[in-house]
Amino acid sequence: xxxxxxxxLLIFLCVSCVFSVQLGRFGQGVDINGTLFKSFIPPIFxxxxxxxxxxxxxxxxxxxxxxVVILLLAWAARRGMDLANTGKAPANWFANAWESFVDYLxxxxxxxxxxxxxxxxxxxxxxxxxFILVSGMMEVIPGIESVGVLEAPHKGTGYCYVAASPKVGxxxxxxxxxxxxxxxxxxxxxxxxxxEASLASDISMAExxxxxxxxxxxxxxxxxDLSTTLAMALVAFVFIEIQGFRxxxxxxxxxxxxxxxxxxxxxxxxxxxxxxxxxxxGFLELLSxxxxxxxxxxxxxxxxxxxxVLVLVMAFLLPVVVPVAFLALEFAVAVIQAFVxxxxxxxxxxxxxxxxxxxxxxxxxxxx
Length: 368
Fold this sequence. Notes:
By secondary structure, the chain is mainly α. The chain has helices spanning 2-28, 58-79, 93-114, 118-137, 179-184, 226-248, 269-317, 322-354, 360-367, and strands at residues 30-32, 35-37, 148-151, 159-165, 168-175, 214-217. The strands form 3 sheets. Strands 1-2 form a two-stranded antiparallel sheet. It has a two-stranded antiparallel sheet with strand order 3-6.
C-alpha cells in the first residue's frame, strides 16, 4: 500500500510545481489584447477609505448592508416561528434552522455559565455572533475590496489602467511612473488630461506628486475597521457593567474600591500588609475592567484585518485556485471570532454578576 501512496504523492508534487510555475508567470506580466497586466498588491490602509460622492467610510457603508441582511434574515426566520406558543413546529426550514441554532448556543454555552440569567444575555450575545459572522462572510463575495472608484494616489505612484468603457477602468498593476510608460504597455496613466478616457475628474499627473490611479473600494469588511470593533466593545462593556449592578447593586463597586480592607491594618503587621495588598488589587481589578474593552476590540480587529490583508496578498500574487483556500480559512476564522466574542460577553457577564456571591438570588428575577 505504500508504493501507490508514494507515487500519488510524487505526481501531486510534480503537478503542483508545474502549476505554481505557470501561476508565477502572472507576476512577470501577461499580455491581453496588447495590454500588459501584472499581479500587484494594492495599497493597504488600516483606516477605512471614504467613498467619493457619498463621503462615508466604506466600512460604514458595508455595515449598513450587513444590518439590512441581518434584518432580512430575522424577518425570514420570524415568519415561520410559532410566536403564539401553540406547540407547532416552525413553518419553514429557515425558521427551524434558526431556532435550533439559537437553542444550541443557549443550552450548551450560556445556561451552564449563567444559569437563569442567560435569558437576559442571549439577545446581545447572539446578536454580536450573527453580526460578526455575516460581516466575515462578506469577505468571500467577489470584488468586495477590489471594485470601487479610481482616484489619484494620495501618496507616491499609482498604477496604469485601461478604459473598458467611458465609466469603467481596470487597473493593470503596472506602476504609472509616467504617461509614456503606461502607453508603452497599452494602458493609460491619466484620464481627463487625455481624450481617450475620462474615469474620474480628479485623476491627474500633478496631484499628490503621483501618477496613475488607485482603487478606493466601495465595500470593506466592517470588523476589519477598528472603529466598528471598538463600538461593539463599548456596547458589550456597558452591558456587562449594567448586569453587574443589577445583580449586586452598589455593592458591585466594593470589588474595585476595597476601603474596608484598610480597617484591618491595625490588626497586625502581616494582616495589615495583606489588607494593603488587597486594597491595591481592587484598583487593578478596576483597571482590568477597562482593559476588557481593548481585549474585545483589538482581538477581533487584529484577526479580521490580518485576514483581509492575507486574502488581498494571495489573490494578487496567485490569483487562481490558491485564494479559494484562504477564503475558506477566512470563513472559519469568522465563525471562530464570532463565537469567541459571544463567549467573552457570556463569561465576563458571569464574572460581573457573581463576583460578590450575590448574583444567584437575583438571577431568577433578572431572567424573567
